[in-house]
């Protein structure tokens, strides 16, 4: 979606909700304390930009933006720190996600990509 000098924004291939993004440094680090100051600043700027893009594109009622640091905390890729940025709507916790361990996404990933890409340029 977007490349910075030290970090980047990508779409999640297996989104929790439509528009689910991730922000990560190019350098493989597993903890916030491993980031240098320039990386930490750029990552937070990209998290902020990602939230703004999601608000413009989807008008969510809220957004989850966070990290899972380490396998015990739920990190799927524990060796590579990344922020999960998930747009949320009132009532979006459906029985499919809770009981069926699956997510119903109303838009194809390609359509979401096409919708979001120009917003990162602006």
UniProtKB/TrEMBL annotation:
The active site is at 82 (tele-amp-histidine intermediate). Gene3D superfamilies: HIT-like. Keywords: Nucleotide-binding. InterPro entries: AP-4-A_phosphorylase (IPR052908), FHIT (IPR039383), HIT-like (IPR011146), HIT-like_sf (IPR036265). It comes from the Bacteria. Residues 1-95 form the HIT domain. Substrate binds at residue 12. It holds the Pfam family HIT. One of its GO terms (molecular function) is catalytic activity. This is Histidine triad (HIT) protein. It comes from Alkalidesulfovibrio alkalitolerans DSM 16529.
